[in-house]
Design brief:
elongated; 1632 residues
Length: 1632
């Protein structure tokens, strides 16, 4: 009924039911709460303490706890609830002291606790469903049942995991009671799921889908149905009347194989039913049992979904049950499938028979011969799966009972199958899958043989001869491990039993006739060969052999073409799974069988060999060493046997096995070695000679293994019979000349092999016999074979190998100082020619290097030059080897590519050894430097593979050099700097190997450098940083490389900074960005850490290196590195860097410009600018030193340095960010620039210094720089003023230079940029020998005199004195500026000037003397005019009158400036005279000069007219005529011409006397030589003629009397004609 309820719950669902907990008697339990305890939690804790202390009855305590839990609505703390759940869950388990009532009460407490902690309770119950006894599982199921009743909807989220756990319980349910319990739980949980699906909207937990809930229900339902049906069918079998219904349900159960997804449940139900059938011994209908057999067989044959191993075992168990129920039908069915079924059917049938053999039931065991016969019918099946199934059956048969093997030679079948698989593999025509199948068959054969039980005595007697005969044949090598173990076990058991069980052996197991046993020599040879064979699947090149063998492999070609034979397939020769240990152990057991004399020796030697194997693994076994141990064991055994006949027979046996071994096998290789060892131990010399010649004649030298084998035979034979072997080889060598030409290829291979044989014989020859035969009989024959043969790669390789081994043999022979190899230089020359002739990818290269290295150790010694040349050639030959990928990319021959990987590493190692040898014999520095020079080219190569190899060579070179220097402190390594700079950036190379090697080289360099310094080498830090170079991120690599640089740079010796920076800068131009950045960082690190220690003499070279690198680098990032390096160098050595940059040729290129600008932007901008200013000033001072020096350097070099400095200044100032820096330097910079501007002017004041060239742009350059400098100091308004007034153009022009200086000084004064130091620097020029500098300084100070600054700084007196001195300067322009300065003093210091008035006037009067230039005179007049203002007339004394008269003297001057200045001075005199006591004097002067003043009002120069008008106005008060005075005063607004016209009219009307004086004045001017007064006179006369009265007789008119002369004068002077025309056009001219 429980089953029916469960099924009903699966499909319909029932509502939740709930009820109170029941006690043991079915009533409700209400416990009494102690009165002392009042809180809910305290009550629970008290009860739990009681349960833990086992005080009182546990049932009552649980019932009391349940009552408390149900009676309180408050929540229980998690910790208390967890404690209660743990106690209750623990009591659910079945224990000796736990009753059913306690477990039931604990279950009810868990249900009550689930009220608040449902998740914790369900999780604990799910865990308890596994690994519990049936009774405990029932209690867990009971608790789950109650939980589903109480909390139907709340349990839905836990339904999936709970139902999955129930599946596991259902699969192991062993009783109907357990099955009913499971079904009850399923029913209640399914009811909860149905209720949830109807009202899921009311639930507060996340919604679950129907499919999600139904999936575990469906799976569990199917399983429950199958289990229930099987149990039900088993129950029905107990009543015969229900058998028919049981058979019908059986068919339904078999049908479920096609319905369910997991058929394992069906199989378990079927197995349960078959057990029930066998238990009740019911008679099953034949049709039904056949249906069961067919269904089980079909499941085993399912290829689409193969059954799991567990399911397959369950199916086989069903087959065993069927065989026990219906044996005849089962056997018939299996026989039918074996005969008529397909491959899968046969495999399944054999597997079923294997299960039957495994069964221990007596009724099945008695049918074993029948089962064996059935399987024997398919033993020759070609299918690999069937063969493997048969082998597994045989393994089970051998393991179960030997009686089943009596009718079938099971051992023979195992070895036959192994041989069959080996033959198929040897064809080489199998697919990958077929190869795997055949190898699986072989492994299975070995496994079956290894599981053979030899404990039965009868079996031991039967198997011993059968197994022993399979030891010698080589085809069973793969079975050797289990075979040896079986034989060893049989032998050990035979020794223990000593034939006691022979009488009890059944007749069927005794052999019909004794099997033939193999010979002792055959056993020894075979087991030794098996011990020395390589591991399974080992390739020909996978195991290291002797050197000559590898050479012959390269000479004759690599084995393994299209018809390649099978290499011996065996497991590795190691203890446990290796045949080496097994063969040795068998040898130890068979010692009595092989020879009685070896028992004692083998008892000690074989354990040593086994111990050697036990200490190694397959990956670390040295094959050559192992072979040597085996051959020593063989030699020692033959010496112990000491039987010539036995040894001869062994050698013949080895020869026979040699002929029967596979062509390309390591077995054959070891046989050759063993044969050579046997011949060496043989005392019959005739036999040895015959065997040696026989094998030489029979050898096919074109075959690699045969050529290698004959080398081993002859060379090992020479160990004991050197002269015999040498004569035999010489005899065979002599026969090569008489061989047919058709065998040319074979003869060539024979020559190559013979050359190798000679070298190997020298290695193995006794020392006392070698030296007497080496040069004539060995080296002579080698050279003869080489000369007579075709000198191709084969013969060259043989020559190289032979020379190497001969050199090693001579060294090992300890020849002593007297022995010298006379043909050493000839051999070296031949080796070098071989290296040059062969392609670089040829394997000859590394071998030749090895030969050169060994040969160089022999006497006679080479000279130093020979050694250096030899080493350089070898380095070039190795480093430029090309990588296979590179060859393939260039489309070169593919045949050479496979050789390259094997060429590179040996060549590099050989080169390293050669370097060590030569450095050891030769003083290191010379040889070391030569090699470094060769390597530098390759270390900087653009090819990655070349750099990598060069680094490998460099590692070995530095290592050897370090070893040589470590014995004493020598001088500093001269290549340290260049190597460090070259290797440093390679720590960021693209190749990780190159990075690692570069760091290793740097470590060696540090060790070398530490020998000559007191600084620790920091090799540990280098090693740590080297490991971090494996990073991939560029930032990480750069950081690590920088840290390495910090360690290395401080060890660079002084004096090698240029070498270091040169190589680093070369790396900066690398195409790979990371390496270039590393080079930049190395350069910066070196300069930053070691810049102070660099010698001053190295700085110019460093600057050149940096500039050259900057010129060849275009990328901005890399240029920044160079500029930064220049900055750091300048910070450490500012003066040399500046000097070096200034020495670069002009015009300045863009790179040099960028250098100056970068320095200007840096923190060194101001110091360098200050230094450049000093240099510019020094250059100016040096140019002023002597006139002859200036003349000598005036053409090219004299201007080079100033021009370079000025260019540098220009670039630096242009990028300066702070104006204050330039302003601070202005007092020094401005004089220097002005001085250069002044010095570049072509117009000198002295004629002797003038040059014919007038076009020079040098001054313009300096002016531009001056403008740039001032642009950093002045505001824009002052700059605009300078530009508008043409100051810059004036400075560059010789004639206007002084005006430009004055304008510049004026602006600087107004901008308040005239500090005292500027004046101090300029004041030194006042006494300079350079006229231009004196002019510049005088002009500047002349303008300075206008400002109050002169008075404030108390500069008046010194400047007046300086101006007084300059007033006598031979250069007139300087005199002019001096006069101007004296005049400007009236503006700058008017008060204090009165103290020096007389002196100033005296100096100014000197400028009016005869001999003064026009400019000086004019400037003197103007200066007097300025000075008279602040001076009092009486202050100048009598000089006033003289000045007045002097000024009048210049009114008639031809020069406009003189006239203008004179009238200006006269006006100033008038102003001064009116305020002093000189009025009477000046009145007289005015009366006398009035006509001239009126006359010059018509001067042709406007400036003169204006000055004259101003003077006339100031002189008006001194006129005697009141009318004239008033007329002049009233004409303020008139122009000079209008005033002249007005005065002429007035004089003509009212002042005839003045008119007469004016006419006489005009007449005198007309007769003068000055043209300007003539024009004025002509004009005034015209005006006078117009202004004369009409009634006056014309004869009395002076103007009329002068008319004729006027006309004549006008005809002579054009300007006079124009003036007369102007005068006659005046109003009134017609009347006149």
């Amino acid at each position: 009924m429980g089953v029916l309820r469960a099924l009903r719950g699966f499909f319909t669902g029932v509502g939740a039911r709930s009820g109170p907990a029941r006690g043991e008697n079915g009533g409700s339990v209400v416990g009494a709460v102690p009165a002392a305890i009042t809180t809910f939690a305290a009550v629970v804790i008290s009860i739990l303490d009681q349960l833990e202390d086992a005080q009182g009855g546990r049932v009552e305590a649980y019932r009391q706890l349940e009552s408390v839990l149900w009676g309180d609505e408050s929540d229980l703390q998690s910790s208390v609830a967890g404690r209660a759940i743990a106690l209750a869950a623990q009591d659910l388990r079945v224990a000796q002291d736990t009753t059913a009532a306690v477990r039931m009460a604990a279950s009810d407490v868990l249900v009550a606790l689930a009220r608040w902690h449902l998740h914790d309770v369900v999780s604990v119950l799910q865990g308890h469903l596994q690994a519990l006894e049936e009774m405990s599982v029932e209690l867990v199921l009971h608790t789950l049942h109650n939980l589903a009743i109480r909390y139907a909807l709340q349990c839905v989220p836990f339904a999936g995991k709970t139902l999955a756990a129930l599946r596991g319980v259902l699969s192991t349910a062993g009783s109907s009671r357990m099955l009913c319990a499971v079904c009850g739980v399923v029913e209640q949980w399914c009811s909860g799921i149905s209720a949830y699906l109807r009202q899921r909207e009311k639930c507060d937990f996340p919604h679950l889908g129907a499919a999600q809930l139904c999936a575990p229900v469906y799976s569990l339902g199917k399983q429950a149905m199958l289990r229930a049906m099987a149990v039900m069918m088993g129950v029905l079998l107990h009543a015969e009347e229900h058998h028919q219904h049981a058979w019908e349900q059986l068919l339904w159960l078999l049908h479920q194989y096609r319905e369910v997804q997991d058929p394992s449940g069906v199989t378990r139900s079927l197995s349960y039913f078959l057990w029930a059938v066998m238990d009740v011994q019911a008679q099953v209908p034949r049709a039904k049992i056949l249906a069961v057999i067919a269904a089980v067989h079909e499941q085993l044959c399912d290829e689409m979904e193969p059954p799991s191993p567990g399911h397959r075992a369950e199916l086989c168990h069903c087959m065993v049950l069927q065989a026990r129920i219906c044996p005849e039908e089962t056997i018939v069915f299996l026989y039918y499938k074996l005969r008529t079924g397909n491959k899968v059917d046969r495999v399944a049938a054999v597997e079923m028979l294997q299960a039957l053999v495994r069964c221990d039931a007596p009724d099945v065991r008695e049918k074993l011969p029948l089962f064996t016969k059935l399987v024997q019918s398919v033993c020759h099946d070609p299918a690999a799966q069937v063969r493997k199934a048969v082998l597994r059956f045989l393994g089970e048969l051998l393991h179960s009972s030997a009686l089943g093997c009596s009718a079938w030679d099971v051992v023979g079948h195992l070895f036959g199958e192994f041989s069959r698989a080996s033959g198929r593999l040897a064809t080489g025509k199998l697919s990958v899958v077929e190869v795997w199948e055949e190898r699986t068959v072989q492994r299975l054969c070995a496994h079956v043989l290894g599981s053979l039980d030899v404990s039965a005595g009868a079996v031991a007697k039967l198997l011993w001869p059968r197994l022993l005969q399979y030891v010698v044949p080589a085809e069973y090598t793969g079975m050797l491990v289990p075979l040896c173990r079986c034989l060893r076990a049989l032998a050990e058991r035979t020794e223990r039993t000593e034939g006691e069980e022979e009488k009890a052996a059944p007749e069927a197991l005794k052999p019909a006739e004794p099997a033939p046993l193999p010979a002792p020599q055959a056993l020894l040879a075979r087991l030794l060969v098996s011990t020395g064979a390589p591991g399974e699947g080992a390739s020909v090149a996978g195991v290291r052999g002797e050197p000559g063998e590898m050479v012959l492999q390269l000479v004759l070609g690599t084995p393994g073409g299209g018809g390649r034979s099978m290499v011996v397939a065996a497991v590795a020769p190691h203890t446990g799974g290796g045949h080496g240990a097994a063969a040795l152990q068998l040898l130890q057991v068979l010692c009595g069988t092989i020879h009685r004399a070896v028992g004692a020796s083998w008892a000690t030697e074989i354990p040593l060999l086994l111990q050697h194997l036990a200490g190694t693994t397959a990956g670390f076994l040295d094959r050559a060493e192992w072979d040597s141990l085996l051959l020593k064991f063989l030699r020692a055994s033959l010496e112990v046997i000491a039987s010539e006949a036995w040894t001869v027979e062994l050698s013949r046996e080895l020869s026979r096995q040699l002929g029967g071994s596979p062509r390309l096998s390591w077995e054959k290789r070891f046989l050759y070695k063993a044969l050579g060892t046997a011949l060496a131990a043989c005392g019959c010399l005739r036999h040895v000679r015959e065997q040696t010649l026989q094998h030489l004649e029979a050898t096919n030298f074109l075959e690699l293994w045969e050529a290698q084998g004959i080398v081993s035979v002859v060379s090992r034979c020479a160990e004991s019979h050197f002269q015999l072997a040498l004569s035999s080889v010489q005899q065979f060598t002599g026969t090569l000349k008489h061989r047919k030409q058709s065998h040319a290829l074979r003869n060539r291979a024979a020559r190559a092999t013979l050359m190798v044989i000679y070298g190997r014989m020298a290695l193995r020859a006794p020392r006392e016999q070698l030296l007497t035969h080496v040069e004539r009989d060995i080296v002579g024959n080698v050279l003869q074979l080489y000369r007579e043969g075709c000198q191709d790669a084969q013969l060259k390789l043989s020559l190289v190998q032979s020379v190497t081994e001969i050199s090693l043999a001579i060294q090992a022979a300890d020849a002593g100082p007297r022995f010298e190899l006379c043909c050493k230089r000839e051999l070296l020359q031949m080796l070098l020619e071989v290296m040059q002739e062969e392609p670089q990818e040829s394997p000859v290269q590394p071998r030749a290097l090895m030969a050169v290295e060994q040969l160089s150790k022999l006497k006679p010694r080479l000279s130093r030059e020979e050694k250096c040349s030899l080493l350089a050639q070898c380095c070039r030959g190795v480093v430029c080897l090309r990588h296979p990928e590179q060859m393939e990319a260039r489309g070169e021959a593919a045949a050479a590519a496979p050789v390259a990987p094997g060429v590179q590493a040996p060549a590099l190692r050989a080169l390293g050894q050669l370097m060590r040898t030569l450095l050891r014999e030769e003083p290191a520095p010379i040889c070391f430097e030569d090699v470094v020079q060769v390597l530098r080219h390759w270390l900087a190569s653009a090819e990655e593979c070349e750099r990598e190899r060069a680094l490998q060579v460099c590692v070995q070179l530095l290592g050897a050099h370090e070893e040589q220097r470590e014995h004493g402190r020598g001088r500093a390594c001269e290549q340290f700097g260049s190597l460090a700079g070259l290797l440093g950036p390679l720590t960021c190379d693209a190749s990780a190997a190159s990075r690692w090697r570069a760091a290793t080289c740097l470590g060696h360099l540090l060790q070398i450098g530490a020998e000559t310094t007191d600084v620790a080498p920091c090799t540990n830090e280098i090693g740590y940083l080297r490991e971090r170079l494996n990073a991939v991120a560029p930032d990480s690599l750069l950081a690590t490389s920088t840290n390495i640089a910090k360690l290395v740079c401080k060890h660079v010796p002084q004096g090698q900074a240029a070498d270091f920076m040169d190589t680093v800068m070369e790396s900066l131009q690398c195409t790979r960005p990371v390496r270039a950045w590393a080079a930049g960082r190395w350069a910066l690190t070196f300069l930053g850490d070691c810049g102070e220690q660099i010698f001053q003499e190295e700085v110019p070279e460093l600057v050149t290196i940096l500039c050259t690198c900057l010129q060849s680098t275009q990328q901005s990032t890399r240029r920044c590195f160079v500029l930064r390096a220049m900055f750091i160098l300048a910070r450490c050595h500012q003066e040399p860097v500046i000097d070096s940059l200034l020495q670069r040729c002009l015009p300045m290129d863009s790179n040099t410009v960028e250098v100056w600008r970068s320095l200007g932007r840096s923190a060194l901008g101001y110091p360098i600018l200050e230094r450049l200013t000093e240099k510019l000033r020094a250059a100016g001072d040096s140019s002023q030193g002597s006139e002859c020096c200036a003349r000598e350097l005036g053409s090219s070099q004299a201007a080079l340095e100033p021009h370079t400095i000025i260019r540098a200044l220009c670039e630096m100032v242009s990028v300066l960010q702070s104006e204050g820096l330039v302003q601070h330097l202005l007092p020094d910079l401005l004089p220097s620039l002005l001085g250069q501007v002044s010095e570049t002017l072509r117009e000198e004041m002295e004629p002797s210094l003038r040059e014919p060239e007038s076009s020079d742009t040098s001054g313009r350059l300096f002016v531009e720089v001056l403008e740039l400098v001032l642009s950093k100091c002045l505001e824009e308004r002052w700059l605009r003023l300078l530009r508008e007034q043409g100051a810059w153009a004036s400075l560059a022009e010789p004639q206007a230079h002084s005006a430009g200086v004055c304008l510049l000084a004026s602006v600087l004064l107004r901008a308040e940029l005239v500090p005292p130091r500027l004046l101090q620097n300029l004041s030194t020029w006042l006494d300079s020998c350079s006229a231009n500098l004196r002019l510049t300084a005088t002009a500047f100070f002349a303008e300075l005199m206008k400002d109050r600054l002169v008075e404030e700084r108390k500069l008046l007196k010194p400047l007046l004195e300086a101006f007084a001195a300059r007033a006598r300067d031979p250069v007139s322009a300087v005199q002019q500026m001096a006069m101007r300065g004296l005049g400007n003093a009236a503006s700058g210091a008017p008060v204090k000037l009165q103290r020096h008035g007389a002196a100033v006037v005296a100096v100014l009067r000197g400028g009016l003397e005869d001999g003064a230039s026009v400019e000086v005179a004019a400037e003197s007049l103007l200066a007097l005019a300025k000075v008279l203002g602040p001076l009092v007339a009486r202050a100048i004394g009598s000089a006033f009158e003289e000045v007045t008269r002097s000024s009048r003297a210049f009114w008639g001057a031809e020069e406009e400036a003189l006239r203008c200045s004179a009238f200006t001075l006269y006006g100033a005199l008038a102003a001064s005279a009116s305020a002093s006591g000189r009025r009477s004097f000046f009145s007289r002067e005015v009366e006398a000069s009035f006509p001239s003043l009126v006359l010059h009002l018509g001067d042709p120069a406007p400036a003169v007219r204006d000055a004259c008008k101003m003077a006339l106005h100031r002189c008006a008060p001194f006129l005697a005529s009141e009318r004239v005075r008033r007329r002049v005063a009233a004409s303020t607004g008139l122009s000079a011409a209008e005033l002249q016209d007005e005065l002429c009219r007035h004089l003509a009307r009212d002042c005839p006397a003045l008119l007469e004086s004016l006419c006489h004045m005009a007449q005198s001017c007309c007769t003068g030589s000055c043209q300007a007064p003539q024009e004025a006179a002509v004009r005034i006369l015209g005006l006078l003629m117009n202004a004369a009265p009409a009634e006056r007789p014309q004869r009395q008119d002076p103007a009329s009397r002068w008319g004729a002369r006027q006309r004549q004068r006008c005809n002579r002077s054009p300007r006079a004609r124009r003036a007369a025309a102007v005068g006659t056009r005046q109003p009134g001219a017609a009347e006149l």
